[in-house]
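Thread: "does anyone have the structure for this chain?"

Original post by V.I.:
We have the sequence but no experimental structure in hand. Need at least a predicted one for the grant figures.
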Amino acid sequence: MKHFRGRFPQTFMAMACLIMASSQLHANEVQVGRYTLRSTTPTEAQADLMTAIVTIRFSDRIQTIGEAVRYLLQDSGYRLASLVAIGSETKALFRLPLPAAHRRLGPLTLKWALETLAGPAFRLVQDPVHRLISFELCAKGWGRQVKREASFKQARTPEDNPSATEGEQ
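Reply from O.Q.:
Generated one for you, tokens below.
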């Protein structure tokens, strides 16, 4: 018993220090259970909505890139800018069919998902004050490329068009 009494003050002091150290919470933490601490600061996705991680599979009724963008923005806190504010190139992008490779996206950030849908020719434009998004061409050269490809389609030779008959050549 004498041995126990001799160590009791040391053991008591050690336990008291541990209790005091564990009871001191940081300013950004709150105790929600006996052994559980939670942060009182927002997550990165809560502070910046575009960094929210999304994993999505578009249903078969989503047919165009525009429909996919609108679907992706649901419940994100962002919305698409009005059609009046969107350029003609972006409107043309939204009418394009959704590629099969884009039917499943993620896990990736909302920003990356939107940029993936738009492709490398377009840049995501954000209005964080009004929580609006839109897209614009990255550079003027892309617009000329798109126009050039359209003129190539118009200038096809009959050999390029397998549905053309001999009389039309």
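V.I.: this helps a lot. The first helix runs from residue 2 to 23.
O.Q.: and Residues 150-157, 160-169 have pLDDT under 50 and may be disordered.
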